[in-house]
Each structure stands twice: as C-alpha cells, then as structure tokens.
Design brief:
This protein has about 260 residues and is of the alpha/beta class. It has a domain of about 140 residues: P-loop containing nucleotide triphosphate hydrolases (Rossmann fold, 3-Layer(aba) Sandwich), CATH 3.40.50.300. It contains nine helices and ten strands. A six-stranded mixed sheet has the order 6-7-8-3-9-10, sandwiched between helices. A hairpin with a 2-residue loop joins β4 and β5. It is globular, with a radius of gyration of 19 Å.
Length: about 260
C-alpha cells in the first residue's frame, strides 16, 4: 500500500456519550510536518478530539487514520507504537524518579527493550545516550539528576515534552502546553516546541492566541464538535464565521485584559 499523503486524517468522526453528541462529523486532513493549532470555546470538544485521536476513546462512528492506517478503536499503546504520542493538560511525571530516569523510561520500548530482570539499565548505552540527547534538546541536561518533583512548573512541562518526543513519534499531540506560564516562559516554550518538533507533525490545543498565531502553520477551529474552519492563521483571522463563533470575542477579551483599546 502506498504511503498516504496525510499524516493524520479524521473522516466524519462522531462521538456520543449517551444522548449527548460531543463530536459531530469532524473532518481534518493534516500533512506530514504541518503544525496545527486546534482552538475553540470551552466545551467545543477539543480534549475529546485529542482523546479520540490518541485512543483513550473510540469514536461512535467515522474513521481516524495515521499515515493511511486506521487507528480508530485501537488501544493508546498500539497507536503510540505506530508513531503518535501526546502530552496532557495535567502533569503526569514519575515524581520520585530523576529527570534522566523519566526520559529513559520513555525511550526503552521504542528502542526494543522489554522487561528482563537480568539486564541493568545502566548498561543500556544506546538508551542512556538517547535519553541524554533528549535532555539536551529540552534544555534540562543540567537538571539530569534532579528529582522530577523538584522541578519548576515550566521545567516540568518541558520534561513532559521530552517524554512525548523521546520515543521518536512522528506525530505529536500537545494539550495546552503553555497553560499557567508567564509571558517570558511562554515565549521560551514556543521556541522549544519549534525546535523539538522540527520535521514532525504537530497538533496542539491552545487558548493563548499569541501562541496560536506564533506557532501554527494552520488553525483548526472547533465549535460544538465541528471543524468550522481549517486554514492558515491569516485566513482564519479574517474568516467571518470564525469571528462570529469564537475568535472575535476571545481576541477582544485578551485585548481588554491587556489594556488595548478595541
């Protein structure tokens, strides 16, 4: 089978919880290497969409394809092994392990290692080297031996990014990666995301419009479970339907908070 021209496809995806339909015929086609931001009002279904793509939920109907292969209904670990990885809104680290040990845990399976009581992790030179490479990428090499519980908030988020990319996934999902950060931290984090996802396909859920317009090649606007627009940041900004449904009010709120006149 020839390789698909799309890294990720959502084809008429629906998700119902009882009588409530959260995702209503979502359509999305993402090319390899594109950086996509998914935006929308609270309750639009953004986290549900991520959960469907990563396998935490199975769609009620429709198809989800990763590099042409159907992944809807597969388990999260199966999807991960096919080359998709995600981070979460809430930190999910091994807090009693060091920064290095957290990263090494993430690389072991992708490098073919399985549980074996006769092997010492310290002897796995290739896994240890790969973990050190990731630490350098996420700028935490100087925190190598620090317990994850002792990291700052921004450092912990960087470690989560490292765990997400450590396995070599080509499609990366980041769920609100800059939430809770200061402006200076956010600026540095945008650059970090750009660097560590270079050449990869990126989907991120983000509420900060500065992050969205500074990071994304394209923006998908999700409103009431439907993708109402999917285009470049400039085109989405000018889209009248998007302005009416979501973007205009959000930008106005952010400008008002910053003291900028409308």
């Amino acid at each position: 089978m020839s390789k698909s021209e799309f890294a990720l496809e959502l084809l008429d995806v629906h998700k119902r919880f009882g009588k409530s339909e959260i995702i209503r015929g979502a359509q999305l086609q993402v090319r390899p290497g594109e950086r996509i931001a998914i935006i929308g009002p609270n309750g639009a279904g953004k986290s549900t969409l991520f959960n469907l793509i990563s396998g935490r939920f199975a769609p009620s109907s429709g198809e989800i394809r990763l590099n042409g292969a159907r992944i809807d209904g597969r388990k999260p670990y199966q999807i991960s092994r096919l080359g998709l990885s995600r981070s979460f809104q809430v930190s999910n680290l091994f807090t009693r392990l060091s920064v290095f040990e957290n990263i090494r845990c993430a690389v072991l399976w992708s490098m073919g290692y399985r549980y074996a009581f006769w092997k010492f992790l310290a002897d796995l030179d290739d896994a240890n080297d790969r973990a050190d490479q990731v630490l350098e990428m996420i700028k935490l090499d100087k925190k190598r031996d620090v317990l994850a519980t002792n990291l700052t908030y921004a450092e912990a988020r960087a470690l989560e990014i490292g765990i997400t990319i450590a396995g070599g996934a080509e499609v990366v999902l980041l769920d609100e990666p800059t939430a809770g950060m200061s402006k200076s931290e956010t600026k540095r984090f945008i650059q970090l995301i750009r660097e560590v996802t270079e050449g990869k396909t990126l989907l991120t859920v983000e509420h900060d419009m500065g992050v969205v317009f500074g990071l994304a090649d394209k923006i998908a606007v999700l409103v009431y479970g439907e993708v109402i627009a999917f285009d470049t940041p400039e085109a989405v900004r000018a889209n009248a339907r998007v302005q009416e449904a979501y973007l205009g009010s959000v930008l106005a709120e952010q400008q008002a908070a910053a003291g900028v006149p409308a």
